[in-house]
Write a structure and sequence with these properties.
single chain, alpha+beta, 2 domains, seven-stranded mixed beta sheet, 14 strands, elongated
């Protein structure tokens, strides 16, 4: 009888996945956001402070009115204390110069080329008005305003005012609902405040506004098509830059791995199944404890993956007949994957990060990301056959599943920070080890 294999490689791999999953969000942090209004609130106060004028802001608002000719009329109001208003009125530097300096300090703001700047002090309120050529894109009968669209860059805009409102032209209506906004006919409104740590942030295209004529037919479908047309080039670029290298690396590693496991015997496969069961349970419990102590991000996928490995290992140890043929093995894997995701819903809900997508979207994404693990025993069964066609089918099954998992992981509407490729390549290596271990179980138990 062959000695029982050590599960240490799988243990090391799953631990690596856990550690990487806990640190990657910090490592891949987005660039600092730009302000949504360069002449509002704190930005105006900073411009005043640069010339030794102390200004205390009480409230600030920004209104953007789109005209039919494509011009955007901006009105920024900053209400200050009576003492601040008196200092501004008596200062040698006028409010007009301060507003111009505030706008110049944020050249990458939404309004890139403001014209017709006018500034006046009305009571305790500084009123700044200017016009700008609105960045508009037309598609499928709709018009998209790109003031707060980052065009795929991994950054965003912060709503640095108490209220930011955009009003579309006459005889139009807004046909989408930008993130964290209130939509009412032609009006889109965001509410924020003056502190950078609690204000509303618009990132990754969340601030795109789509509007259309009020009598446009099928406006919802046209809006969806327009938004997809805007982000499709970004997603295709992400597939090329991130998914393709990840899939190629995984394909090379798992091809070698499947070739090495073809001679796995039944006793070794059973022992490996028991080892994976133990490792999966240990990692799931350890992840849960760490999550309770430190609230690790992405703990849902870590626990779900570990539990799935444990379940598939348990099937190998207790019901090895399920791995005698490829179809039953695939059926067991898919049923186990679905059941595990249902079971860990409370964990996913409890530890979901702020502004997480809806639960069905999270579950669908996790299902695709864990699909290679679920299909690994079936691929091992296929790889154990003597025919080259069967081996190629098992390899293609895993590579295709990883391609789907990677495609579901990369962003669809922005280009992530370049270091993401390091994480994805590390994940490809770890996935190849875990998947090969499970495939070895299937390969060994497929032999009578």
């Amino acid at each position: 009888m062959s000695p029982r294999p050590s599960p240490s490689p799988a243990l090391a791999t799953l631990l690596t996945l856990l550690v990487v999953a806990s640190i990657v969000p910090a490592a891949l942090a987005s660039s600092p956001p730009q302000v949504a209004c360069g002449a509002c609130g704190e930005q105006f106060a900073r411009a005043a402070a640069d010339v030794d004028i102390e200004v205390t802001v009480l409230e600030s608002t920004a209104d953007v009115r789109l005209l039919a000719n494509g011009t955007a009329a901006w009105t920024a109001r900053t209400r200050v204390t009576p003492e601040s208003a008196a200092r501004l009125e008596n200062a040698t530097v006028g409010v007009h110069a301060l507003a111009r300096a505030a706008l110049a300090s944020y050249p990458n703001g939404p309004a890139e080329d403001p014209t017709g700047l006018d500034t006046r002090l009305v009571g305790n309120t500084v009123v700044v008005t200017f016009t700008d050529r609105a960045p508009l894109e037309r598609a499928f009968g709709t018009t998209r305003l790109e003031y707060f669209d980052t065009d795929g860059a991994d950054r965003g805009f912060r709503v640095n005012v108490d209220r930011l409102s955009v009003v579309t032209p006459e005889r139009t209506r807004v046909t989408n609902t930008p993130a964290e906004s209130v939509v009412d006919g032609r009006n889109v409104t965001w509410y924020g405040n003056a502190t950078a740590f609690s204000e509303t942030h618009l990132s990754h295209g969340e601030g795109r506004i789509v509007f259309a004529p009020t009598d446009l037919q099928n406006s919802a479908l046209r809006t969806t098509a327009a938004l997809w047309a805007d982000t499709l080039p970004i997603y295709l670029d992400n597939l090329r830059a991130y998914v393709l290298p990840t899939t190629l690396l995984f394909g090379a590693l798992v091809g070698v791995g499947l070739g090495l496991i073809r001679g796995t015997d039944r006793d070794r496969a059973s022992g490996l199944g028991r080892g994976l069961l133990a490792v999966g349970v240990a990692i799931a419990l350890g992840s849960l404890v760490l999550a309770l102590v430190g609230r690790l991000p992405a703990v849902g996928v870590t626990i779900a993956g570990a539990v799935l490995v444990a379940v598939l290992g348990w099937v190998a140890a207790t019901r090895p007949d399920h791995y005698r043929a490829a179809r039953p093995a695939a059926r067991v894997g898919l049923v186990s994957l679905t059941g595990v995701l249902i079971a860990v819903i409370p964990v996913i809900v409890a530890f979901a990060p702020p502004f997480a997508p809806p639960l069905p979207v999270i579950l669908g994404t996790l299902w695709l990301q864990l699909l290679p693990v679920a299909l690994a025993p079936a691929a091992g069964v296929l790889a154990s056959r003597s025919r080259a066609r069967s081996f190629a089918l098992g390899w293609a099954l895993l590579v295709g599943a990883v391609a789907l998992a990677a495609a579901a992981f990369v962003p669809t509407d922005y280009r992530p920070f370049g270091a993401l490729i390091v994480f994805m390549l590390m994940s490809a290596i770890a996935a190849a080890v875990v998947v090969t271990s499970l495939a070895a179980v299937g390969a060994g138990l497929a032999r009578d």
